[in-house]
Amino acid sequence: MSVHLSGPCLPPSSSLPPIRRLISTSEEELTSALRKLQALYCPLRIPSSLSKPSVKREHIPVASTPIPADSGYASEDEDDDAPSEEEAKSQIVEDAAFILSSISGSSNDEGEEALTRDFTFSTSRGDSISITLNDAPLSGTDHTDVGLQSWGASIVLSSMICADPQRFNLASDSLPQQPTIIELGAGTGLVSLTLAKLLPEIGVERATFTATDYHSAVLENCKANVATNFPMTSGDQPPVDTMILDWSSPPSSLQSTADLLIASDVVYAPEHAVWLRDCAAHLLTPSGTFWLMVTVRKTGKFEGIPETVEAAFVPELCPKDGEGRVFGILERSCVEKRRGIGRGDETGYNLYRIGWA
């Protein structure tokens, strides 16, 4: 049997403009060409990194990301300015890098190994908080192991907390004497470790920190990161504890125990938002605060995730307690993406202040 093709079989790269025409190619044409390649090569893949493929124990310094004068917030009611030509070009470069990293960062790449990353965050006191983390390679087969790597939201949130702790009500006069702080979906533990180093410096003593996650391999990596940042002698206990936590079935022993809950980039499906809402309502004290940072992605598999969070917190669906309080969103702020931070499909972040009211 013979097969006759009606036209030539062209390679995927044929959708890209010739190099000699790059200078005259419009931004729309470049963006369209990249979208075609992304749909073909990485439609469902979570990007492992924007940087070049990792090599054995490569040390990646991460620059401090201080908050600008306007605190990095933009009201949700403000009109969005059209992106500048420089921003549009930067986005095209990031999109191309995402596609390249998705191809070269395959889980079958035997050269992909763990990375050590240094984070330095400027504080409101004029000094800095430094964190060293191990970022392990993703398995490529289990979507729940994304916590093996540090994502843009956790980096930006840690930076914001250090630069303006008052914005998050982190002070000795606004927290209980011995506050209980729990991170949900802690991943590498960046935010928990940042808080554990920052709070004693700003007068909040004797706080307890627990980094929780559902994935056992992620939690083991988190434990190693705690040990790296808080080396202890025999018999000492590190300030950050770790614990496996299933949002769909939180233990009764943790009910109304958390004075502060925090989570970043932990929602990847509509059911995640519902589980997270109910789990946080179970854990948080009546006067506590839950800070949730959600990554905004306008392309790919996780487009529209912020809308699932908003839908989960519709007032009539939110948990209520015996005192008539409703667990819901109290404030929402839009946070811009930082240059050089996060993956190529991230366009910004929504920061939610959630609690009982």
Q: State the separation between the terminal residues, measured CA to CA.
A: 72 Å
Number of helices: 7
Provide the helix percentage: 25-40%
Largest sheet: 8 strands, mixed
Architecture overview:
With 357 residues, the chain is α/β, with parallel strands linked by helices. 26% of the residues lie in helices and 22% in strands. The protein has 7 helices and 11 strands. It has helices at residues 27-41, 85-104, 152-163, 190-198, 216-229, 270-283, 305-312; strands spanning 58-62, 73-74, 115-122, 128-135, 180-183, 208-213, 240-244, 258-264, 284-297, 327-336, 346-356. The strands form 2 sheets. An 8-stranded mixed sheet has the order 2-10-11-9-8-5-6-7, sandwiched between helices. A 3-stranded mixed sheet has the order 1-3-4. Strand 3 (115-122) and strand 4 form a beta hairpin. Helix 1 (27-41) runs parallel beside helix 2 (85-104), helix 3 packs parallel to helix 4 and helix 6 packs across helix 7. The protein is globular, with a radius of gyration of 22 Å. The model is unreliable at 1-7, 44-81 and 105-111 (pLDDT under 50).
